Amino acid sequence: MEDKDLLEISVKYGLSSERLSKLVDVLYQAGIKSPESPEFEEVSKYVCENDLLDMPMEDLLEELKRKKLIAG
User: Which of left, alpha, beta for 15 (phi over 0: left; psi -120 to 50: alpha)?
Assistant: First the structure.
């Protein structure tokens, strides 16, 4: 189920449980609720590869909107 997908993302990007929780929270607030969805993977990749998890939540959501990765 979802735990497997989250574990894969955590390992792939070297996320601690705290950073994984923030990523999931960001995606949930953006309306992406299923770790199995292509959108979840796409946004996770962008956030992690650009090291954006240290941004304040509001700024991170705005960045994702600006890049048209989430609706806004």
Answer: beta
- 35 Cβ contact list (under 8 Å, min separation 6): 2, 5, 6, 9, 24
DSSP 3-state of 55: coil
Coil/strand/helix, residue 35: coil
Tell whether pTM > 0.85: yes
> 14: number of CA atoms within 13 Å, CB side?
2
Residue 25: CB partners within 8 Å, gap ≥ 6? 57
pLDDT at 11: 95
Q: How many whole angstroms separate alpha carbon 39 and alpha carbon 26?
A: 13
